[in-house]
Amino acid sequence: MDLFAETQGLIQRFQKGAKFRLHVRDRLRLVVPALAVFLLFSVATTAASVIAVGGTHRLLVLVAMLLAPVILLGSLFVQLYVFFTWVEARSLGHPPDPKTFLVALPVVLRVLAAVFLVVPLLLLMTVSFKAAVTLLLLLVLTPVAYNALDR
């Protein structure tokens, strides 16, 4: 599976598919807070990754700072792709079963999720366990809240 082609397809379906686009537009009050949670998660885990990896050694700090944009953008990409794939399925009238949705995601996306979500979250746990748990709860509860408020 070509994730780049799938991402382009998702963007094109949003641009050209009236049902998907209208669904998102009509639910901006739900989409915008979700995007804010994703951004908060990405920024916090990126910052924690820089702190945890960099420590006090100058060379490691430099490497961590150079990797920061990659971690930030990778994290945002994975979250946005999964979220908008889920929203698209909802807009078409067949909301995915939460038990099978994540399993049905492409293997390459699950690998990216491990690299850009799980590893930085574990690094955040080394910096601040409470912040990591809070962000993880926010991330997990975002689609739950979206689903509950989208009635």
Question: How does this structure look, described?
Answer:
The protein is mostly helical and 151 residues long. The protein has helices spanning 3-16, 18-26, 28-54, 58-91, 98-104, 107-127, 129-149. α1 (3-16) crosses α2. It is globular. The model has no long low-confidence stretch (mean pLDDT 91).
Secondary-structure class: mainly alpha
Q: How many helical elements? A: 7
Instruction: Provide the helix percentage.
Output: over 70%
Strand content: under 5%
* Largest sheet data: none
Radius of gyration in whole Å, from Cα? 17 Å
Which shape, going by the Cα principal axes?
globular
Mean pLDDT: 91
Gap from first CA to last CA: 34 Å
Order of helix and strand elements from N to C terminus: HHHHHHH
- Total count of strands: 0
Regions with little confidence, pLDDT below 50 for 5+ residues: none
Give a quick summary of the entry.
By secondary structure, this protein is an all-alpha fold.
Question: Mind sketching the topology for me?
Answer:
Layout: H1 3-16, H2 18-26, H3 28-54, H4 58-91, H5 98-104, H6 107-127, H7 129-149
Key terms for this structure?
mainly alpha; 7 helices; 151 residues
